[in-house]
Structures are given as C-alpha cells and as structure tokens.
Amino acid sequence: SPAGLQNDHKALMKQVEEALHQLHAREKEKHAKDEAEALAEAMSQNQSLPQAFAKVNAVTPGSPASISGLQVDDEIVEFGSVNINNFQNLQNIATVVQHSEGRPLSVTVIRSGKKVHVGLTPKRWAGKGLLGCNIIPLQR
C-alpha cells in the first residue's frame, strides 16, 4: 500500500540523516585533532630553532654573499666555527672569513622562521671585503 511505502521511506531517510550527522561529527573531531597536531608541531619547531647571534643587514649584488644566496634580514646561527656559544664580537667572524679565503664556509641562518644552510666561499671580488655583505651583532 502507498501509506506503507511512505512510512518505509521516512524511516530510511531518518537512518540516512542520522548516519550523515555521525559522519560529519567524526569529520569535525578529526579536523580539530589535525589542527591541534599541526599547531603543536609548529610550536615545537619554533622552540627547536637555534639562537641567532648576528644579522645580515646588507648584501651587495654580484658579491660572494649574494651568489651564495645570503639575504638581508637573515639571522646568523652559525658562521663556520662561530656560533652563539663562542661569539664575542664581529672580529670572530672576520677571523673565520680571512682564514677561509677561497674555501667554502658552512653558514646557517634563520630566514622567515626556518633554518637555512648556505655554502659561502669568501673570495676577492670587484667590491670591498671578501663577502660583500654587512653583518651586525644582534642585541639580545
């Protein structure tokens, strides 16, 4: 009978509706959990960033620093053997640069919240100095 079919249809639609509600509720919980995990990961990455001791405030185009990919506002974490633990002043960096002329130095910087490794080879070029960039100490 048509009335019986209508009741079956209503019951079936109710089941479908409940199943959809459950599905969306689970999806919402999963999304919230994913967001929480992403946030926790971002926080742990921020805490694992090493401390910078100096900052690049100028890079001359065509210089060894520019060719190596060093950029203005890069915060220096490691410059060859110099790091936050043994850095006293810019003379430390100058000494490393002079002793490394023509040999690649490993430089680690923090750029827009990420750790970036740069291979920098101090050498004579058209401009002054062996790098062609200006580095200033960070006041902490």
UniProtKB/TrEMBL annotation:
Is the keyword Nucleotide-binding in the record?
Answer: no
What biological process terms from GO does the record include?
proteasome regulatory particle assembly
Q: Which stretches make up the PDZ domain?
A: 21-113
InterPro entries linked:
PDZ, PDZ_6, PDZ_sf, PSMD9
Coiled-coil segments: 9-46
Task: Write down any Gene Ontology CC term.
Answer: proteasome complex
Record keywords? Chaperone, Coiled coil, Proteasome
Q: Does the keyword Glycoprotein apply?
A: no
Superkingdom of origin organism: Eukaryota
- Pfam families xrefs: PDZ_6
Biological function: Acts as a chaperone during the assembly of the 26S proteasome, specifically of the base subcomplex of the PA700/19S regulatory complex (RC). During the base subcomplex assembly is part of an intermediate PSMD9:PSMC6:PSMC3 module, also known as modulator trimer complex; PSMD9 is released during the further base assembly process.
Q: Which family does it belong to?
A: Belongs to the proteasome subunit p27 family.
Quaternary structure note: Interacts with PSMC3. Part of a transient complex (modulator) containing PSMD9, PSMC6 and PSMC3 formed during the assembly of the 26S proteasome.
Spell out the protein name for this chain. 26S proteasome non-ATPase regulatory subunit 9
